[in-house]
Design brief:
Elements (H helix, E strand, L loop, with lengths): L1 H7 L1 H23 L10 H18 L4 H7 L3 H11 L4 E8 L11 E2 L8 E10 L4 E11 L2
Antiparallel strand pairs: 1-2, 1-4, 3-4
């Protein structure tokens, strides 16, 4: 008799099916959506990227950390700090030159491939106060597509 009541209770079966359907809809929505990156292809985008790159370099150089990291040849830490400081959707490539225009970084300092119509190239002259050397930093920024 008790088993018959459980089998006849259609309300519980419908709720179970409803919960499974809701879970399937949520997972499908998560799997089918992807991050939306804004695409900019006009002249003002260059200005935005240039200003953003210059601000990032000034911020990293505020306490002399950037010069210290370059002197230590700590390219991984520089790449990590750039990745954290720049917004999502912006890829970068950084090259450091010494006073004789020799490239100092022995491996690429980048967040991926720069593949865009609009690439901003920022040159920043950095003076390391600890050993009185100067470096020329070239930071290239573009929007990811």
């Amino acid at each position: 008799m008790e088993i018959m009541k459980i089998l006849m209770n259609k309300k519980g079966q419908v709720r179970t099916l409803e919960a499974l359907l809701a879970v399937a809809v949520v997972f499908a929505a998560l799997l089918l959506t992807r991050p939306i990156y804004m695409s900019y292809d006009n002249l003002s985008d260059y200005d935005v990227l240039y200003t953003m790159g210059l601000n990032v370099l000034v911020q990293l150089d505020r306490d002399g950390d950037l010069g210290r990291l370059i002197s230590e040849r700590n390219w991984a830490e520089i790449a990590d700090r750039l990745s954290v400081t720049l917004p999502l959707g912006v890829s970068f490539n950084l090259t450091v030159y010494d006073e004789e225009s020799n490239i100092l970084n022995d491996r690429p300092v980048s967040s991926g491939v720069i593949n865009s119509k609009c690439v901003a190239s920022i040159q920043y002259i950095l003076v390391d106060r600890s050993n009185f050397r100067f470096y020329v930093i070239r930071l290239q920024l573009s929007w990811m597509k």
